[in-house]
């Protein structure tokens, strides 16, 4: 009664919830690890599996993760520079970290 109709047209991916996108992704063989993905990643993976071209425009959440990974690496390098008493490099790393943090705020 309250279920979906068999011949009903599917909603656009952007309008679906993450939960619905995970259900769609589970049905597609090429997608692995759907439960660990966020909404933009799920949409991207489903489009790729279906052969739909990505629209040019806003960048997804994957970029933010990459930037945060770079920030962590720079923090380690900065800590090493402080330990070896290299104030110049510590300052350079600090500025790079600040710049990357600004990028994550703009991308979010």
UniProtKB/TrEMBL annotation:
It comes from the Bacteria. Residues 12-54 form the Rho termination factor-like N-terminal domain. InterPro entries: Rho-like_N. Transmembrane segments: none annotated. GO terms for biological process: DNA-templated transcription termination. This is Rho termination protein. It comes from Desulfonema ishimotonii.
């Amino acid at each position: 009664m309250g279920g979906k109709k068999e011949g009903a047209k599917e909603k656009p991916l952007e309008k679906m919830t993450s939960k619905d996108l995970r259900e769609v992704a589970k049905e597609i063989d090429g997608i692995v690890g759907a439960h660990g993905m966020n909404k933009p990643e799920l949409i991207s993976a489903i489009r790729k599996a279906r052969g739909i071209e990505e629209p040019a425009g806003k960048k997804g959440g994957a970029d933010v993760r990459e930037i945060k990974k770079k920030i962590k690496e720079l923090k380690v390098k900065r800590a090493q520079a402080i330990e070896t008493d290299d104030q110049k490099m510590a300052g350079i790393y600090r500025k790079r970290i600040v710049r990357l943090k600004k990028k994550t705020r703009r991308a979010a």
